[in-house]
Each structure stands twice: as structure tokens, then as C-alpha cells.
Write a structure and sequence with these properties.
With about 240 residues, the chain is of the alpha/beta class. It is built from ten helices and seven strands. The protein has helices spanning about 15-30, 60-80, 95-100, 130-135, 140-150, 155-160, 170-185, 190-200, 200-220, 225-235, and strands at about 1-5, 40, 85-90, 90-95, 105-110, 115, 165. The strands form two sheets. Strands 1-2-3-5-7 form a five-stranded parallel β-sheet, sandwiched between helices. Strands 4-6 form a two-stranded parallel sheet. Helix 1 runs parallel beside helix 2 (about 60-80), helix 2 packs antiparallel against helix 9 and helix 3 packs across helix 4 (about 130-135). It starts with a strand and ends in a 9-residue tail after the last helix.
Length: about 240
């Protein structure tokens, strides 16, 4: 078994470079014959609090180029053969929620929280969330999360099926490790073959969704409402949206 830890303080925001490094690490574990499952953890208070494109500039073209790179690296992770278990100790917000949904299973701390908050920016969801979130919780509950941007507490996330287990913060790693070891104790050929059948439509569905998401994001990125949404979130207030 492999353990991979995201460590990008202060809140483990995901950038294209970080996602590429993570995809590289996961791919290396996936290719190692002695590794049957990977446990993905994060350092600090947040699992991943969203995307960070600041290194690429702030123009619309720059941001969308960065988003395209980020989503391409996520697609690399979707294509891997072996199971990934995520141990989520804090916020999994926006792209962080998308990252969590790239994994097969999610074990969360009682201090975790989950949100797809794109509409609060007057923006379109990304990182395949329009595909992966309905697949995890069903279309109706996914629509509620995506259209309200509300934050989900871990108990509700467990009830909805967004996460597969709940643990106190000091027991989270051991709980996640236990799930990973339970998988790793089985026949690896049977595990990978079964996983391939279960996820047969996943790659095509995910890649189709990120293409659609990027097209919608390109249109919304240049709107007045997006600029207002960014200011409103930074100011911790409701946006004064005009529909332009």
C-alpha cells in the first residue's frame, strides 16, 4: 500500500502544477506491483480548499488555460487502475471536492465540510463535478449542492453517500488505513478487474463533462457577475448579481 500526502499550505489549494505532481505520484504507485491500493491524505487543517490559478496571471485566458491543464491532470488520475481511498480531515471545497471525488472511497473527519460553491462566484462547476457528484449522491442531491453552493456537514455527507465513513480527527488516518488494508488484503487481479467493470463508463463520462464545463466557464469568466462574485466571496458577503 502507498500513502500520499498533499502538503501545500495553508489550505492545500490545488494548482495545475500541484495536480500534475499528485498525478505523477499516484501513477507511480499505480505502476508499482507491490502497491494494491493508495491512501490519499492532506497535511494541515484543510483537505483542499479549492483551486489556485494565481501563478498563471489573472486574465480570463490565463485562468482558463490553467483550468484546462488542471482538468487534464485530473483525467490522468481517473484513468488509473488501482483503488484510491481519501482521508478528508477538513474543507473539501470546489476543486477540492472534485479532487475527493476522483478517489474510490472517502473517509472524513467530524471536522470536514464539503461544498461546490461555484454559483456563489456566478461560475460553472469544474473538475468533472457535474458528472462525479451526481454519480456519488444522485442527481437531485447533486443539483441541490451545485445550485445552492451550500456547505455540507460530514454527518449529512455520510447520509447522502458522499462519504463512506466518519471518524474523529485523531482516528481518521487509522480509519482510512483500515479501509485501504481491507481492500489490499484481497486478490489484486480480482480487485482491479472488478473496479474496471464498475468504472467502465467513468473515463468517457468524466472527460466529456470537463469539456462541457470548460466551455461554460469560458463564457462566464468574462461576465460582470463573475467579477462581482469574486469580490463578494473575498468580502464574505452575498453577491449583488445583475445577470450580466
Amino acid at each position: 500500500m502507498a500513502v500520499i500526502t498533499i502538503d501545500n499550505p495553508p489550505h492545500n489549494h490545488v494548482s495545475p502544477a500541484m495536480m500534475a505532481a499528485l498525478a505523477d505520484c499516484l501513477a507511480a504507485a499505480d505502476a508499482e506491483s507491490q502497491v494494491r491500493v493508495t491512501l490519499l491524505t492532506s497535511a494541515g487543517k484543510s483537505f483542499c480548499a479549492g483551486a489556485d490559478f494565481t501563478g498563471g496571471g489573472r486574465s480570463a485566458d490565463d485562468d482558463m488555460t490553467q483550468a484546462s491543464r488542471l482538468y487534464g491532470e485530473a483525467a490522468r488520475i481517473i484513468r488509473l487502475r488501482k483503488p484510491i481511498v481519501a482521508a478528508i480531515q477538513g474543507a473539501a471545497i470546489g476543486a477540492g471536492l472534485g479532487l475527493a471525488l476522483l478517489c474510490d472511497f472517502r473517509i472524513a473527519s467530524t471536522e470536514a465540510r464539503f461544498a461546490a460553491n461555484f454559483v456563489k462566484l456566478s461560475f460553472h462547476p469544474g473538475l468533472g463535478l457535474t458528472y462525479s457528484l451526481p454519480r456519488a449522491v444522485g442527481a437531485q442531491r447533486a443539483s441541490l449542492m451545485l445550485l445552492t453552493g451550500r456547505r455540507l456537514k460530514p454527518e449529512e455527507a455520510l447520509h447522502w453517500g458522499l462519504i463512506d465513513g466518519l471518524a474523529q480527527p485523531d482516528a481518521l488516518f487509522d480509519h482510512g488505513l483500515g479501509v485501504a488494508m481491507e481492500i489490499a488484503g484481497n486478490g489484486p487481479l480480482g480487485v482491479t478487474a472488478t473496479r474496471q467493470t464498475i468504472r467502465a463508463d467513468l473515463v468517457a463520462g468524466f472527460e466529456g463533462s470537463i469539456a462541457t464545463e470548460l466551455a461554460a466557464q469560458r463564457l462566464l469568466r468574462v461576465s460582470d457577475d463573475f467579477e462581482e462574485g469574486v469580490r463578494a466571496v473575498a468580502d464574505r458577503r452575498h453577491g449583488n448579481f445583475t445577470g450580466r
